[in-house]
Amino acid sequence: MRNSSHRLNCTSSSTTTFGVPLTNLVVWPAVVGNVALLGLFIFRRVPRSSTNTIITNCALVELCREGAERRGTPGRHQATVQFNKKEGRFRMGTWNVKTMARAGKLDNVKQEMERMKVDIMGITEMRWKGSGKMKSDKYGVIFSGKEETAESGVGFVIKDTLEKALIGYWPISERVVAAKFQMKPFNLYVVQVYAPTALSDDAELEQFYGDIEIALQKANTRDIKVVTGDFNAKVGQGAAGSTVGPHGLGTRNERGDQLIDWAETNGMSITNTWFENHPRRLYIWISPGDRTRNQIDFLCISQRHRNAVKSCRAYPGADCGSDHAPVIATINAKLKQVMKPKPPVKFDYNLTDKTTRDCMRDEMKIVQERVKVLTAEDSWNSRREACNNIAEKYIPRNRREKKKAWMTENILKLMDERRRAKNETATYKELDNKIKQGDRRSRRISDPFFLKELENSNSTETF
After folding, report:
1. Crossing angle of the two packed helices 105-116 and 409-420, in degrees rounded to 10
2. Measured in whole angstroms, how far is the alpha carbon of residue 224 from the centre of its chain?
């Protein structure tokens, strides 16, 4: 419509617009927002008896709705977020790993994330004590669990590229944790959850959904809100409004009805059910003996941002020694470049001897005499600059020692072989035993990261 060949030339001597006769009418189509408009540029030559002038009048008239519909004007939810393909995509998922307390499990999850190109993985049944944030190679780990016992527990494993955009995190309980990231065009607010099992009572389930509400209250209205994790519920086949799509799995149960009610109340859409996938890409959990295959882990996103999700499916080929498969979604959004300030320089004051301290003291006395005649502000600036210069001159910097990795390439290769042997029960168990034995031989008790794993572990295993 931008090309001049699309102009509509009209000639009329009787037509008037806003009281102005039209002799030559040129109609230019235009679109403003979601409303299609016509720009009318009116040119009328004044008779020779008058001064030769060109009277220009511009009016905007609404185009008929039929034309707007032909252009495929999107609805409110789809028009709220318009992503450009050049802005990039990222991948996020959720995975019930059964436990992170076993040494080497975190390395296994990181290896699978690298293979599947996942930027952020929500973890359920983490089973680490307490809450906090830690660094592991090129990944950051956020966890939230009980203080006394290593039960339940949720968290995130975040790739370094996404960790740089982390605004903050909120450990709500051992079943709910939230994190916020700077993105374009809107920030991303993710809540990782682990619902009580079917054996729990109604009060515990109400407490669980109450914790989710507390987490969502910390998000802004414009944020892309994602709630993901193991809900221990089956929404089944059959669509339900804009909350559940037509591509679910199995039969809906009572917990599924509760999940749908919560999603409708909070304006969330269960993305697993909106994409047509092979049945193998739908089921998440396999019961012992492979008697039942259910879809109980879900990734929910606010309905106004649903069009940002380009795919969502299970990856049954991934393996970390769990009976759950990860659910991974591809989302259109771009990480915002965050310029974090450089950490302050730390000095090792323990390495300064008496002679060095005396030299520093003498130089500071000279500075004290020099700043007596200065104003208070100039005196403070001079003292600060002198202290920094003297510290750089006499005190060595505190150099951080790189953590010594205890995980070996051989164990990582065995983990990959175990993944390929998921359908061969005997081979899988044999490789799993070899991995456990390799872990015992390769552990380094002096490694501070391993000590952190031991502190969070509730295992009674002998080392």
Report:
1. 60
2. 9
Per-position pLDDT tens, the chain of length 463: 444 444 334 334 444 444 444 444 444 444 444 444 434 333 344 444 443 433 334 333 333 333 333 333 333 333 334 333 445 788 999 999 999 888 788 999 999 999 999 999 999 999 999 999 999 888 999 999 998 888 899 999 999 888 888 999 999 999 999 999 988 888 999 999 999 988 888 999 999 999 999 999 999 999 999 999 999 999 998 898 899 999 988 899 999 999 999 999 999 999 999 998 888 888 888 776 667 788 899 999 999 999 989 999 999 889 988 889 999 999 987 766 555 666 676 777 666 677 778 888 888 888 888 888 888 888 888 888 888 888 888 777 776 665 556 667 788 888 888 888 887 888 888 888 888 777 666 655 445 555 555 555 544 443 3
Upstream peptide bond of 185 is cis (omega within 30 degrees of 0): yes
**AA identity, residue 362:** D
Q: What's the 3-state SS for the chain? A: CCCHHHCEEECCCCCEECCEECCEEEEEEEEECCEEEEEEEEEEECCCCCCCCEEEEEEEEECCHHHHHHCCCCCHHHHHCCCCHHHCEEEEEEEECCCCCCCCHHHHHHHHHHHHCCCEEEEECCCCCCEEEEEECCEEEEEECCCCCCCCCEEEEEEHHHHCCEEEEEECCCCEEEEEECEECCCEEEEEEECCCCCCCHHHHHHHHHHHHHHHCCCCCCCEEEEEEECCCCCCCCCECCCECCCCCCCCCHHHHHHHHHHHHCCEEEHHHHCCCCHHHCCCEECHHHCCEECCEEEEEEHHHHHHEEEEEECCCCCCCCCECCEEEEEECEECCCCCCCCCCCECHHHCCHHHHHHHHHHHHHHHHHHHHCCHHHHHHHHHHHHHHHHHHHCCECCCCCCCCCCCHHHHHHHHHHHHCCCCHHHHHHHHHHHHHHHHHHCCCCCHHHHHHHHHCCCCCCC
